[in-house]
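Re: weekly structure request thread

Next one in the queue (252 aa):
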Amino acid sequence: MYITYGTYTFDLGEATFVRFETRMKYSPRGCRELAVKRVRIEGELLGCDEYEIKNKIAQMEDAFAYNGRDLVLWHTNNTHTKHALWSNAADTVIPPRVRFLTYPSGAPEEHVTKRAFVIEAETVLYAPDGKLTGGDNFANSSFVYWQEEIIRYGTGDPAIAVQATQDGVVFQTIYPATPVKFIQRGKAVGLEGYWLIYPWQALIPYAELDPTQTIWKPGSAKRVGKNLFYYPFEWSFTFYKTGYAEVFPRSV
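Done, posted below.
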């Protein structure tokens, strides 16, 4: 078996995949979002003399000085294995990138007939739970964050007037109930599009909603590699109700 990085090929027996791992990234809600595939290569460049070793080191360093190339473990019949980091796969978010290239040994024969090395590279893939809606930014999409709160101004108790008389203070009910102001606001973040199923719902009937105080605020998505993710959407409703009312935010 042999390993290639772009157009560069390790000689047979010089390099080995000693570790190939996939680590998942989950949202605080427990939904899988991305996967990081990471590979570790260890080996020895072999040569007859220091000049051959010097040339091999230069060729390897020139190849791994660039990111975004396919890193593949091949069978000897020139068919690729499952152990590969592809630069242009459909689910690639961040193409292969070199994390480090190091020479761990300082043995006397190093630079003379061999040179030990270690390389680590990784790629980031789009790996959500299930199939999500794509393309349209205003499509319903799985969301990774949700928060909502209710702010209440007033108690709704009767309006009382205080009047002084020769017999003392008299409390007089002017109105049986007073208006209460509510502000319902929150934020949701969709993984691949704005989440619009829940936010556009006021918890008090629209007849009592103040349309001049309704806020609809989609924000720009975050770029991760070559893709856009994490679409923030904020909302705020202001409404009034006469008398006491219990209104609680939604948890979804």
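The domain at 2-126 is CATH 2.40.30 (Elongation Factor Tu (Ef-tu); domain 3). The radius of gyration is 32 Å.
Next request, please.
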